[in-house]
Write a structure and sequence with these properties.
This protein is α+β, with helices and mostly antiparallel strands. Helix content is 51%, strand content 14%. The strands form 2 sheets. Strands 3, 4, 5, 6 and 7 form a 5-stranded antiparallel beta sheet that branches. A 3-stranded antiparallel beta sheet has the order 2-1-8. Helix 3 (64-90) packs across helix 11, helix 4 packs across helix 6 (129-150) and helix 7 (158-170) packs across helix 11.
Length: 321
């Protein structure tokens, strides 16, 4: 089983060709080290470059308010990539330039471009190509960490599959929802205010059609389905957390929730459709096995990353407002 790693930057050509230059509108850039992560460092330029990349690819408004609200998420993203690269180095895992080139080429093909055309498009909008290549490298490194060190912990037994199938059978007659999710974690109490502001901004921008849900999910969501635009598939009502169920159960199809606070952070859901579960909607045994495997792989990967972050020396020198 291969852990599904999709590069979070899914560029829409029409979006990129219609936006103004991102870097030109950034506030005056500081220089030097912004965050120390163990024996590594994240520069102010790294942060500015990633902000430009995310704004360009997500379609979020290009203004100071957006950048300020994205800042905590971007810093966290870069910290995670730093510890991912450090763990890969500890395990003597390398990512070659050829592998990064292949990842970049895949993104270009996604947008029906050659790699040269794609690079020219990015440069033409002042979006740093090096920032994208660093992101690709970190994700490839983490994929290799999973393959070499974490895969063996992913186990799904026949009993697990039978239990899940039985639970699905028990759901027949209940309502299920076709949902997509954007999840913004709150790691510490001090993060809550900034994360809530970002969640509110995201809801406003998606509601006003300034940013597509899927593109934003791919960029900033920490939910397992982020790489597929936040898609969760059909979710039975009784599998939703109480805070979520009380909101979703009253919604009409094709509508968006406000940010919903749970114990671990803020969730934003888009409800595409709802239906009553019938026997013919129960997935096959192989499909259930795959679902359980992917879920456990995602959980193991996230737990390992969280443990590395919590055990790291992190000196954040940025003033967050």
């Amino acid at each position: 089983m291969r852990l599904r790693i999709t590069y979070v930057l899914f560029f829409i050509c029409a979006m990129l060709t219609s936006i103004a230059s991102v870097s030109a509108t950034l506030p005056s850039q500081k220089v030097g080290i912004a965050v120390v992560v163990n024996d590594g460092a994240i520069s102010y330029m790294d942060i500015q470059s990633r902000l430009a990349l995310i704004i360009a690819s997500s379609g979020l408004p290009d203004n100071n308010q957006t950048r300020q609200k994205l800042l905590p998420q971007v810093v966290n993203m870069l910290i995670e990539e730093a510890v991912q690269m450090q763990e890969a180095e500890r395990l003597d895992i390398l990512v070659t330039e050829q592998e990064i080139d292949a990842g970049f080429n895949d993104l270009a093909k996604t947008n029906n471009m050659t790699s040269q055309q794609f690079e020219q498009l990015l440069e033409g909008k002042n979006v740093p190509v090096i920032s994208l290549r660093k992101q690709i490298k970190a994700r490839l490194a983490w994929q290799k960490v999973f393959s070499s060190d974490l895969r063996r912990n992913v186990r799904v037994s026949n009993s697990d599959i039978e239990s899940q199938l039985q639970r699905m059978q028990d759901h027949i007659g209940q309502t299920e929802y076709l949902l997509s999710e954007i999840f913004l974690p709150v790691d510490t109490v001090t993060d809550d205010k900034a994360v809530k502001k970002l969640a509110q901004q995201v809801v406003t921008d998606i509601s006003n059609k300034r940013a597509p849900f899927a593109a934003v999910a791919q960029q900033i969501s920490k939910a397992p389905g982020a790489q597929t635009g936040g898609a969760l598939g059909w979710v039975p009502e009784n599998q939703l957390e109480p805070e979520v169920r009380s909101v979703v159960s009253t919604m009409a199809s094709k509508s968006l929730t406000h940010p919903i606070r749970t114990l671990d952070g803020y969730h934003i859901f888009y409800l595409s459709d709802k239906r009553t579960i019938t026997a013919d909607k129960i997935p096959s045994r192989d499909e259930v096995a795959n679902m359980l495997t992917m879920d456990r792989a995602e959980r193991i990967s996230r737990n390992r990353l969280n443990a590395l972050k919590h055990g790291a020396f992190i000196d954040n020198r940025i003033e967050m407002r």
